[in-house]
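batch job 7 of whatever, protein = Methyltransferase family protein
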Amino acid sequence: MAMINDPVGAAIQDFMAGNRKARIVVESNLTEDDEIEVAYLFRTPEQMPELELLALEKCRGRVLDVGAGAGCHSLALQERGLDVTAVDLSAGAVQAMRAQGIKQVVQQDIFHLSGQRYDTLLLLMNGVGIAGDLEGLEHFLEHTRTLLNPGGQILLESSDILYMFEEEDGSVLLDLNAGYYGEVMYNMRYKQHQTGEFKWLFIDPAILEDYATAQGYTFEQLYEGEFGNYLARLALPKA
């Protein structure tokens, strides 16, 4: 598979080839440039935060790990004996997951995925960000209904980033003409690779609940972290 403008995949491949200090540069319209240590994408269950461990415990049935990256969650679930499929757009990530022995790996955009049904969709590391914006979130929840069995669930991590707009006096400064504050523009770079600008959604739990219930899901917040991040479960009714 050719890696064209695949910064995450190229960095993952370099890490597997021995560059243990590989880092992906993350640019956004919200903060200064940040970096992702590629080693973090290969973390073991012993290195995972409490939220992720809880999500893995709640997985059941056929699992689809959406935006699986280097595959650390898929690998952990496979080792627990679950029927897990890892899906990612990145050619380099898909190569890496197969090289690590993950049995079911698909290179695909989840919005183009069809023909299979799952009991659990897993979206960690703010995986629901792929929705891009609030309109995309509605489309995402409509589409995931076609991927879930009756009684199926979505386990997703996101964050309420309102705290990033707080002033020193505790007030919040928002541009009301700029749309929902959780819609962020990103670009990711590694060596000659870059994604180009793309939208990424951070959704606060109250708004997520409104959108989920409008699409026929129940909503349950399973975990809340220190910095606005949380784990939610959206579930469809049983047949």
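notes: The chain has a mean pLDDT of 93.
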